[in-house]
Predict the structure.
Amino acid sequence: MTYLEKFKEDAYNCLHCRLCTFTWMWPEKTPALWPNGSFQPTCPSGEKYKFEAYFGGGKSWLARAVLEGRIDIKDPALVDILFACPTCGSCQQQCTLEEPEVGYHHRIMSLIEALRADCVKAGSGLPGKQKAFGIHIGKEHNPYMELHKDRLSWLPTDVKLPEKAETVYYVGCTSAYRQKELAKATVEVFQKANVDFTIMKDEWCCSSPLLRTGQWETSWVSARDVAQHNVNEVQKKGANTIVTTCSGCYRTWKKDYTEEYKDLLNANHNFNILHTTELLEQLFKSGKLQLKNNIKMRVTYHDPCHLGRHMSIYDPPRNLLKAIPSIEFIEMPRTRENAWCCGSGGGVKSGYPEWAVEISGERVKEAEQLGVEAVVSACPFCERNLTDAINKYGSKLKVYDVVELVNKAL
Amino acid sequence: MEEICKALEEIVGAENLSAAKPICEAYVTKAIMDMSSKAPAIVVRPKNVEEIQAVLKLANDMKIPVVPHSGGLSGGEATPTREDSILLDLRRMNHIVEVNTDARYMIVEPGVTSAQAWKYMQENHPDYRPGIPDGAPPSATIVGDHLDRGFHFLSTKYGPAADAVLGLEVVLPKGEVVRTGAGALPTAKWFYRWMFGPDLTGLFLGSQGTLGVVTKMAVKIFPMPKFRDVVAFGASDWKYLIEPCLEVLKTESIDLAQGGNYHLATTRRARYKWPPMPKPNVLPTVWMNFELGADSKEELESVKKRINAILKRYQSQYGEANFFEWKLDVRSIVARLTKPNRISVPYAGHKGGGLLFITWYMPWQDSGKFCETAEKLMTKHKFSPVVWLAAVDHGRQALVMPIVLFDPKSSEESKTVEALDQEMTEQFLNMGGIPYRPNFAIHAPMAMSKSVGYYNLLKTIKCAVDPNGIMHPGRLGLSAAEQKART
């Protein structure tokens, strides 16, 4: 049985109406006046490669063709179509036929990931460095070609953390190896807010890069082993809550371990999973976090796909930004459910690095048009790719994570 | 194949051409208007008229079928009937060429979507609005809807979308470019559908891509009223709805009149499971919405008063249980008046992604009988009897659209859809109906077999314009074999 067969219903639930190809933001005041973010491009893959196959609907009909035996899973053109997609979930978001609340699904992301896994199983797929990072996760437990022993090298030596605590700060590979300032800021904020937390000494990659790129069960790495290791490590800490700054880790811990890939990973758990913005918002609302320092800055917010569309967390980061004294907060035209992807997810950053920055460049341009000084996000992977685009295109924008600004305001 | 691809690559560039099977398969749609969709052999994405000319010259020389495809919202109708075809994906040609608010038209390329046109008008000419399809996703193109004689949200007032076309630019199968209407004269604006002689604009409307590739179209734009509202009637049976509605329509004051039966209201989303729930008392068995627009509150109230007077008169004749005003809540009114909308799409969720519109034209007075017949046939074939009814050109015509909701995973059910379509077509043709967008396998051959003189003329025209039969062969019963038999 192929992985795709599990999602046969979803494949056939596409009418092919092309609603997945653009944003939909309802008029706010009168029926005639549509906001600027409406009817805008929404699919990075389709906008880049243009053929119908690269849009969500096209991919759904390709899934049908694979199920009906009209396309070989190893067809190189199919492989490229499937992997050249940041799985941002915008196509699924725009689809009016997706009704999870009544059990009716058109899970385009699941279709893509299952097809990718079938490709990998058949010995194809994995463009660019995707297989290399998969192998590295198997050996050194991170996709960045770094050594596992250096995972906590960012942690200041004067920070003493308890062996056991109520909360585990799950740092994630990107913060541990690339966006180290974010990891440091997170620890500082937690300490200032008196959060009872600790960090796992033997934290492994959450497995998100493996799940997203179809490296589910391979000869070089097992997503199940990776996930189970992490769950066991958290249990050793006696924690009941896990907090992540990375939106990808957040989705993986909260949704993939317990729902989407529950059977595959066998790493179900009962931990309370929070994104840092959720925890900080709770602390702010309860008065335990005093945002008192002025930050005179005009900023906008970029919704990470894995936090927004994939997990429906939109308000906590915004509420925190709005609570910081003197910050002027402006929304981008394509925002919340309709946010344009930063381009780094779904294996695109490693498989198609130049295109990943191109996608991000479009987001940077959108932010620049607002006349803001900074674009703020809530994911180190977004932060990294937005920074790459700013550097490549010579933008004067600054990039922050919400946690970094909260830390400045404390 | 390699030779053809190489030649096409020289025309459009390698990045705008693909013969890869997955790229071609992704255009298939076995739904919406036709279920007999085939994947093309090659997809080409031209950027301008010159490239289309070159592609058609090549295809004509090599006798390769060509299928124009703008937004693809006609579903299977916008895809080949044969697997050896070139599909022209026209979405790169998406410019709004001109808007003239005095002569009240806009000229668009084939890739301009309803959403794009609406937004453009909102931002640049807010007093006017384009005629966009009602209910269809705004990914539908202006050219596709008008060319296919679509129903737009002002069709009750101004007729089918095709009636709003003022001129075309078309690349003919041998590569010549022609313009129709006033635009045929290089010095004239595109203000008038007619040139000297017959209506050559009309020749291409409804031709389903069998005569050439439309590269520009001038369409009327319409004033945006300052005040709008919806009045709805409910009835216990079609027979109580048709006559009063006709009287309202004869006032020629209605922007859009459309309605349907209980099943139309309840199968909209997947939460209404098959079989459909019994009708709750709060919903009428059948109903009709009248969308109204006016420049002042007084004018709007005056129209509503006139409609209500007609309603009251019929109510006293039929009884309050059989005919009544259906008070819509504000949310429903806003949903109806919001344009563009995407109301038609969620129906596909009812039974697993399958949806086929089988739409027919008839005189308004006969529409009730068509609706009843459709309900009976759909029930007989075990489909939810979902029927939509709309008035065109102030009720001179009606559109009856049975919406067949099926499970595409079941090949048996797909065959049943075809059996239903076959039986309905036989009956509707005998009842004097005209297929709205005749599909390839059933409507076109059956309708043409009953209209021999018309069909022969159509074939003669096709042979003259497209002697090698390269344009969308099979559509309208115009296959190459039939053409060959004729010549």
Summary: The longest strand of chain A covers residues 297-301. The radius of gyration of chain A is 21 Å.
